[in-house]
């Protein structure tokens, strides 16, 4: 092959190329960003519009529908779904996969701006939010101790400020703790006594708590800024503010209200193993190195641990960098193990020198792959790591053929250069074709549509890069190494007495045993079996006799008979399979010659295997269920449930979880008033709670965490007052629930009744767990019905 000939004729350049590949490959590998999952852009835009104190029906008619009307005019939209809850409108606009997210945001923003004219005057400005799964928390830790929630929250705020300065950190959210607040409790009776409006008190406080810029003023030769600093630096100033002058006397805030320096009403609770704590959730920017971020966060935690009392504890609940480090370590171990095992196997069959040439294809192909992945801005995530491990066993195939063929020419008397050129030339196109056929198997995966396709495309891309690199190594680098260092080992050659020769002498004995004794015996047995199945009559021009045609027809008839037997409900599948096997074997033995027996038996074996899997298989799933490191308990109470009630429900579940402290559960963290659903990020969720359960390390578990998760589900599933879902940590692309049923109609009440009927029927199906519906009857409300005629008589309106 011309490429190989040029490489061998310019060996010095190829050796320099190998050196460059090693340096650039190691550098690229070290600099590749590490992520838990591929960075996939979700073509989904959320329009969130708060309108506080308004019922769901009014939200639907006043906010959601006007915005939806404008959004429907966007031609590239795949689907628009909305939910209207008390005080909030949430519209999800989904575009076709691959649509540019920036264009989608701009189109949605233009339509929402147009719809704002039709919205009520007092509605909040709609928020346009891009959904990005890479913004989910990558690191979660808790601060606990006896200092009280106020001090713990202060520590958390200080740590938050430092962590947000870390390169790559997008956001740090704090839940739990107490927030200081100045409360002004107004006495309505005193307002009436002083003839003061409630707004007068608000305006008095608002107008005094201001810092006003006054421009600049020149005095002499100097220029001064003018500023009126009026913001409160002490809470007790408020009680001495004058609200109004009455009869020449001032009325102070303290005359009509009580000012207290207290705490804000709690919107979240956080507990670690039942004890109060403060939780920090850190999310990263797209494309940032998760391992570097996690290491810097841990350094900050270590600094605070060293300067704070020992009673203050820091507990890490979620650390995705550990999963990435584990995957990368597994890749490195597999590469090294594969190198050693390949070297050993090839050494037995080819000898140490030739085995070394072949084994070098593994690290060189991997290093070239890292260079290309870095150039394509592909991160090192679990899909890429899986593809690299999958390709590991195929990297040496081409090199084995090249080296073995080169050695054959060397044995036939050719010189090194000629043997290397002829050996590669003879098999270059076969190994190229073989590699291309393998790549063509994975290439269609690149065109997998939808979000799943965007997620999984990194698998075929990585395999194509890696196997192409192995072909390059086989055609360019392996022949050059062989032309320089290959040596023909002659039998009976006098061995040196050096230390190295004595060390590898046992290996030479193993090679002699496998290569000169075991392999010839194995080939002899294989040849006898092959001769037997080919039969005595090897004339390719001889026609198949009528008996063979009859046998083939009988076999086809048997297949139809077996299909009929298998379709009879009264006959078990296993019985039908046994009858079918007996008939098939009988037909094959009686009516066919030896070659047709082999072909027919193989076909029959295929049918048997398919049927056995159909009877005893466990079905099909997209991603395998593996032992999770953690599980999440999502608790949702009816809309209108306040934070205190949600907290009581969470405590009830935590009591049940305490029983699992000795069964592989390391810790559990409850975040009350917090939802794990990113769609709820812009809304207040006092009725929702997320409990994260962290299991002990895999090797220290008494049983599978899948079994423990089922036991936890059974223990808490009947908790009253809320819907409880035990959700395992997901591995793979975002696919949502296993089964999703949507009921569409105009009457919301009837839809709720239908969903309840369907829900009851689905519950009777075996294997169904965590069955939930999103029907929400709404928050209880008090309706004030105005008698318009009486109101008009008193000169009042609605």
List the helices and strands and how they pair.
Elements: H1 2-9, H2 11-31, E1 44-50, H3 56-71, E2 77-85, E3 88-95, H4 101-115, E4 127-130, E5 139-144, H5 149-163, E6 169-175, E7 180-186, H6 188-193, H7 198-208, E8 211-219, E9 222-229, E10 242-246, E11 249-252, H8 253-256, E12 257-263, E13 269-272, E14 275-276, E15 278-284, H9 290-307, E16 313-319, H10 320-350, H11 352-359, H12 361-375, H13 382-392, H14 397-411, H15 416-442, H16 450-456, H17 458-485, H18 499-534, H19 546-567, H20 573-591, H21 594-616, E17 630-636, H22 643-657, E18 665-672, E19 688-695, H23 705-716, E20 723-728, H24 748-762, H25 788-793
Antiparallel strand pairs: 1-3, 1-4, 2-3, 5-15, 5-16, 6-15, 7-12, 8-9, 10-11, 13-14, 13-18, 17-19, 17-20, 18-19
Helix pairs in contact: 1-15, 1-17, 2-12, 2-17, 3-4, 10-11, 10-13, 10-18, 11-14, 11-17, 12-17, 13-17, 14-15, 14-17, 15-17, 19-20, 20-21
Structure description:
The protein has 798 residues and is α+β, with helices and mostly antiparallel strands. The protein folds into seven domains: 2-31 and 352-488, Up-down Bundle (Multidrug efflux transporter AcrB transmembrane fold); 44-131, 2-Layer Sandwich (Alpha-Beta Plaits), CATH 3.30.70; 145-174 and 275-320, Alpha-Beta Plaits, CATH 3.30.70.1320; 181-263, Multidrug efflux transporter AcrB TolC docking domain, DN and DC subdomains; 545-616, no CATH class; 630-736, 2-Layer Sandwich (Alpha-Beta Plaits); 742-798, no CATH class. It has 25 helices and 20 strands. The strands form six sheets. A six-stranded antiparallel sheet has the order 14-13-18-19-17-20, with helices on one face. Strands 2-3-1-4 form a four-stranded antiparallel sheet. A four-stranded antiparallel sheet has the order 6-15-5-16. α13 runs parallel beside α17 and α20 runs antiparallel to α21. The longest helix is centred in the middle third of the chain and has 36 residues, at 499-534. It is elongated, with a radius of gyration of 37 Å.
């Amino acid at each position: 092959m011309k490429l190989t000939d040029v490489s061998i004729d310019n060996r010095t350049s190829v050796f320099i190329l190998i050196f460059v590949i090693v340096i650039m490959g190691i550098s690229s590998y070290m600099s590749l960003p590490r992520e838990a999952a591929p960075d996939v852009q979700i073509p989904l835009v959320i329009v969130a519009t708060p309108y506080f104190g308004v019922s769901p029906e009014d939200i639907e008619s006043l906010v959601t529908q006007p915005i939806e009307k404008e959004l429907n005019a966007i031609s590239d939209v795949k689907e628009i779904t909305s939910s209207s809850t008390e005080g909030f409108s949430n519209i999800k606009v989904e575009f076709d996969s691959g649509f540019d997210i920036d264009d989608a945001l701009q189109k949605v923003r233009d339509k929402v701006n147009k719809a704002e004219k039709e919205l009520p005057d007092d509605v909040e400005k709609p928020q346009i939010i891009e959904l990005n799964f890479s913004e989910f928390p990558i690191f979660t830790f808790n601060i606990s101790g006896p200092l009280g929630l106020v001090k713990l929250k202060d520590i958390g705020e200080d740590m938050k400020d430092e962590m947000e300065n870390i390169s790559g950190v997008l956001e740090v959210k704090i839940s739990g703790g107490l927030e200081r607040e100045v409360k002004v409790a107004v006495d309505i009776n005193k307002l009436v006594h002083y003839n003061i409006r409630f707004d007068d008190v608000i305006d008095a406080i608002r107008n005094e708590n201001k810092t006003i810029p006054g421009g600049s003023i020149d005095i002499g030769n100097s220029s001064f800024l003018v500023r009126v600093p009026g913001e409160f630096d002490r809470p007790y100033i408020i009680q001495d503010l004058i609200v109004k002058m009455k009869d020449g006397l001032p009325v102070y805030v303290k005359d009509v209200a009580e000012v207290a320096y207290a705490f804000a009403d709690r919107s979240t609770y956080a507990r670690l193993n039942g004890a109060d704590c403060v939780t920090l959730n850190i999310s990263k920017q797209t494309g940032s190195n998760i391992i570097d971020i996690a290491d810097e966060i841990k350094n900050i935690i270590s600094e605070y641990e060293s300067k704070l009392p020992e009673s203050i504890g820091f507990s890490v609940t979620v650390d995705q960098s550990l999963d990435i480090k584990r995957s990368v370590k597994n890749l490195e171990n597999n590469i090294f193990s594969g190198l050693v095992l390949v070297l050993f196997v090839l050494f037995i069959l080819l000898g140490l020198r030739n085995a070394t040439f072949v084994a070098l294809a593994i690290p060189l192909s991997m290093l070239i792959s890292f260079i290309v992945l870095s150039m394509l801005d592909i991160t090192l995530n679990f899909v890429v790591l899986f593809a690299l491990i999958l390709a590991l066993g195929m990297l040496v195939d081409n090199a084995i053929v090249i080296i073995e063929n080169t050695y054959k020419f060397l044995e036939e008397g050719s010189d090194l250069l000629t043997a290397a050129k002829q050996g590669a030339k003879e098999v270059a196109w076969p190994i190229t074709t073989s590699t291309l056929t393998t790549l063509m198997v994975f290439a269609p995966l690149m065109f997998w549509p939808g979000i799943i396709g965007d997620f999984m495309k990194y698998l075929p891309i990585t395999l194509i890069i890696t196997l192409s690199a192995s072909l390059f190594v086989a055609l360019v680098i392996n022949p050059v190494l062989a032309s320089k260092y290959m040596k023909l080992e002659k039998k009976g050659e006098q061995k040196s007495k050096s230390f190295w020769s004595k060390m590898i002498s046992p290996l030479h004995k193993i090679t002699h045993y496998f290569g000169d004794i075991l392999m010839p015996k194995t080939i002899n047995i294989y040849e006898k079996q092959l001769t037997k199945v080919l039969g005595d009559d090897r004339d390719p021009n001889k026609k198949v006799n009528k008996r063979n045609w009859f046998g083939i027809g009988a076999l086809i008839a048997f297949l139809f008979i077996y299909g009929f037997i298998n379709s009879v409900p009264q006959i078990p599948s296993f019985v039908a399979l046994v009858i079918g096997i007996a008939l098939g074997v009988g037909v094959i033995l009686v009516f066919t010659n030896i070659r047709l027996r082999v072909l027919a038996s193989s076909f029959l074996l295929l049918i048997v295997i398919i049927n056995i899997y159909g009877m005893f298989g466990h079905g099909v799933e997209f991603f395998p269920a593996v032992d999770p490191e953690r599980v999440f308990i999502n608790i949702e109470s009816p809309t209108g449930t306040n934070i205190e009630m949600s907290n009581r429900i969470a405590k009830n579940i935590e009591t049940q979880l305490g029983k699992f402290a000795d069964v592989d559960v390391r810790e559990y963290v409850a975040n009350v008033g917090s939802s794990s659903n990113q769609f709820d990020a812009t809304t207040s969720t006092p009725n929702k709670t997320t409990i994260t359960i962290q299991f002990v390390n895999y090797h220290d578990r008494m049983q599978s965490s899948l079994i423990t998760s089922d036991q936890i589900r059974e223990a808490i599933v009947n908790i009253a007052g809320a819907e409880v879902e035990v959700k395992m940590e997901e591995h793979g692309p975002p696919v949502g629930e296993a089964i999703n049923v949507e009921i569409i109609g105009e009457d919301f009440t009837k839809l709720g009744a239908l969903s309840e009927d369907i829900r009851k029927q689905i519950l009777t199906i075996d294997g169904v767990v965590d069955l939930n519906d999103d029907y929400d009857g709404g928050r209880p409300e008090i309706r004030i019905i105005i008698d318009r005629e009486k109101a008009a008589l008193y000169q009042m309106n609605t």
